[in-house]
Structure prediction request, 405 residues.
Amino acid sequence: MTQFHAFCRRSLDDIRAQGRYRVFTPLQKQAAHFPYYRRPDGSEVLVWSSNDYLGMGGHPVLVEAACTAVREMGAGAGGTRNISGTSPVHDALEAELADLHGKQAALLFTSGFVSNQAALSTLLNSQPAGADQRWIVFSDAKNHASMIAGIKNSRAQCQIFAHNDMGHLESLLRAAPAAAPKLIAFESVYSMDADIAPIGAICDLAARHGAMTYLDEVHAVGMYGAEGGGVSQRDGVAGRVDLIEGTLAKAFGAHGGYVAGDADVIDWIRSTAPGFIFTTSLPPMVAAAALASVRHVRTDHARRARLFERAATLKAKLDAAGLPRIDSVSHIVPVHVGDAALCTEVSQRLLAEFDMYATPINYPTVPRGEERLRLTPTPLHTDAMMDALVTALRQILPQAVRQAA
Prediction:
């Protein structure tokens, strides 16, 4: 055994000892019966942690669009858009996304992770005309790993500001060299803490200090705003954000990521980002499903309203039962557990004893001591489902954890 093999084994043993070892749960999504999934033995499981926030993944509009596209264009794209050409559905999807966010252009990537990593690293490795210093990026302390990866893969100087702390951000901006190109990178909905950034206030600071803004709306697109354009649309500030990044894999129920912004900036990223240039493009059937979903969701106001009503109902039921719900101003409902091994155990017991699945969120996704279950009620979760979940959690969560609420 090589030294590296031995290192891997020791590291995995340590992860297991801490209760952080991740095991995939074999579950088959059921398009016509969401949020119920199927086990290999045929039994059903009620899933509480899907990012298919609106339950669009199995919607007939998406299914039919994907089936039509795969019959016409096949399963795969056949290469990058530079090599194999670009299909009309890719162009139409980018135009739809640009319009959704009120931007001039948009660019598709193979995932939300890739769109953040590629766009940020490409942008922050540039040398704007007249700039005699490298970029300074101001990154929220709780930004997603994909944003961190993009920043780390650049030559930019990174300054981390305390989560959603405008005073700290302003002090960092004020201390930065006036001539240096600056970028503020942040999210709208933070998916682990379920809180929301003050986008307007960040844009105010950016304007005051000559900084660009880069907003990750992954956990908000499709749900917030008059047409699902995200929190920036809801708050009326999308036009003040320079670059908006989003995903097609959550509320839109498909797959892929994108960035939207000024036409020249998007064209420059398209022309220079290795993460776009050298990656096979989204399969046409996926792009077709995503396009159908975006067009449908933009006008399905009742589905968005139902999502937020369901989230509010679950929060109220958890509170009434004295369960340790973490405060949330978004559609995401975290339940505090506070120990990695216990969090994993609670998840396993929910599955084994109650046929429910809720993902345990442990370090390094959240800090040690802040382990939690992350619940994501959808428009298709009923009151009866919620009551059953509350009953199960009251039985499984130790009294000490419930009293901490």
Notes: The CA atoms of residues 80 and 279 lie 6 Å apart. The first helix runs from residue 3 to 17. The radius of gyration is 22 Å. The chain has a mean pLDDT of 95.
